[in-house]
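Reader question, answered in our methods column.
A reader sent in the components of a multi-part assembly and asked whether the whole thing could be modeled at once rather than chain by chain. We filled in our standard form and ran it. Here is what they sent:
COMPLEX SIZE: two components
ENTRIES:
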Amino acid sequence: MYVFAPVFLLVPMAVGIVFAALLAVRLLAPRAPDIGDKRMSYECGEVPIGDARVRYNLRFYTIALLFLLFDVEIAMTLPAAVVFRRVVAEDRPAGAVALAALVLFLGILVAGLGYLLRKGDLEWIRTWRKSEHNQPDGSPASPPVKNNP
Amino acid sequence: MNAALQLLRELGLPGGAPVVILAALAATGPVVLAVLTLAGFQVYIERKVCAFMQNRIGPLHCGPQGLLQFTADGVKLLLKEDLMPAKADAFLFRLAPYVVMTAALLPLAAIPLAAALTVTDLDTGVFFVMAASAPGVIGLLVAGWASNNKWSLIGGLRTAAQVASYGVPAGLAVLSVALVAGTLNLRNIVEMQRGHLLLWNIGNPILLAAFLLYLTASVAECNRTPFDLPEAESELAAGFHTEYSGLRFGFFFAAEYTMMFVVSAVAVSLFLGGYHLPFGNSWLARHADLAGRAVLAGAHGAGAMALLAGLAIGSWAVAPTRLGFLWRAIERIPRKGVLFLGTGAAVALGVFFIAPAAGPRLVMAAGNAVGTVAGERAGTFAATLIRLPLRFASYGVPAVHLAVFLGKTLMLLFVIMWLRWTFPRMRIDRMMDLCWKRLVPAGFAIFAAAAFWLVIRSTP
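And here is the structure of the entire assembly that came back:
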């Protein structure tokens, strides 16, 4: 009935612990932030050049997409996994159908993973594809095609 | 949670929202405090383990064998200046520790510490744990971005990529267990593993593979060596927490160790038989009485200690001696009030635990006395309250369960520390390869194997 009460209580509790502790810091710790270069970003002691609002590597987006895909898949398989045991115990044809459905669903995902692997989307360090890099006749790789004129 | 609710009903309190909140507080508060203390203590264990492996001694000077090192660390963090870079995004910079700590503490709600001791018995169990701990990575990403420091940004991005990637094999391992157990409720999963070592999930070769997969993936999810690229000090200063100082940094640290505890506790529940003893339950059933008496004696002992501590603190408050830096910190707070409050609490706790040992007749007399002064309802309330510690006699089995559970969890934590001090840090491309090209396919294979095994087993 009230099973989620502690869950809802834990959120304000965690926030309260952090808030109370930081309040204690405010009361106890010294505060003189403007002495010296204390408020300068620490980049190994060098004076920072520019801002950290820079463009970053596209591969992080790929990872985010992959994560979204496979994690949603896990979330969607969980209900099937939970009832699977019961269905299998019921009778043989039902178990066979359930197994076939599960394997089909997983098979599509594994095929997708295989496709990504083949296309090189799981590589962290992207290089030219091997066929471009080493021409069969030993000539050097052709330069990459530029999209923007 | 249910036990606390029942207890409050027996005390004669009316039902309704306030009592539910009180029961929830009674269920969550001690667990959160214990786990946060354990997180501090883990730092000590880690330093001792590391020192042992490197032929050193480790912390030695704070308390016996350096046992109080984490309190010294805590006081130090509390007294450090809390700095924020001028260029940082102030709101997000301050928000990050809250997100991280909430995500670290929330999963504790679903972990079964003993058969009768779960904060709350969630049917969504492991799924809740996975979902509740997921926002932690958002906190780390926010910390990295808000710092406006290139190292922090790269550290935050790496954390996001790493935790997101390794969440997939960990999820597949959990999925395999859910498939075999047919439930997500962690307590039910543990109950299904009742019995000796080979009846635990780890005794099943397929789930043994799932356990190894989960352990590897969760070490990576906690950003621990050999997968600690987000805070690789040789390339990124300190990664996402470079700009954090004092207690604000301490929260990232505490959250990391709390997450380690959560991950180990989930692994113990899913694969290592949870709170069950490794040689079956008949022994515990036979000796439940003895265990109960031991727990009661322990409670009385703890009460006596609290009483003594209260008296000591009280006498120190009356006639203080100067204790250096600690004293200067205490001087800033309204000293007398806090100290006398502490003394009072400790003495009350001591009396509370020891009083019932004086005998049932005295308890009855006290209850009657309150009853005549403040009415019958207050009298039964007082009598029930005074007799409360005697219930500890029936807490023998939960106490043994709790000890077994904590023992297993600490062993797993030791394994994680062992990994840290054994393996060098991986290169990032190899780490991502390991996840997507090795562990994810392995996870799918384990899941499929578990499904086939279930079908073959049930076929006559």
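What stands out: Chain B touches chain A through 92 residues (CB under 8 Å). Residues 54 and 222 of chain B are 23 Å apart (CA to CA).
Send us your own complexes using the same form.
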